[in-house]
Amino acid sequence: MLARRYGSYVENEASKQSITMLADRVLVQVPQSEGERRSRAGILIPATAQVSKRLSWAEVVAVGPHVRNIKPGDNVLFNPEDRYEVEVRGDDYLILRERDIHAVASDRIDNGTGLYL
């Protein structure tokens, strides 16, 4: 086991640390297919095309202890401008606040709008 000491912080290269979200934070992962998309008519829209105020869907990976209505595995709708990006072990994730999430899609929610994804 190889360890380095920096002040009071010990870096241990042999072990991996688990991540715990704090407060009302939600860790989500955006699907890789979010880049290019197709219109209903079949026209390919490149990832570089700007769409004003377009919301995005992502899958919840972890939630903080003060998050009330969202669980890991849910899909959430959010504004891509209200986010923080982070890379964990080579994978890209987003950190959101619960109040910045506009909708939740889940199998466990019974009193929805009647729309299904």
Q: How far is the N terminus from the C terminus? A: 47 Å
CATH superfamily of the domain at 17-32 and 53-117: GroES chaperonin
Question: Average pLDDT value?
Answer: 76
Low-confidence segments, given as residue ranges, are: 1-14
- Secondary structure category: mainly beta
Instruction: State the helical fraction.
Output: under 10%
CATH topology of the domain at 17-32 and 53-117, by name, is 10 Kd Chaperonin, Protein Cpn10, Chain O
Largest sheet composition: 6 strands, antiparallel
The Cα radius of gyration reads 18 Å
The SSE string, one letter per element, is EEEEEEEEEE
What form results from the Cα inertia axes?
globular
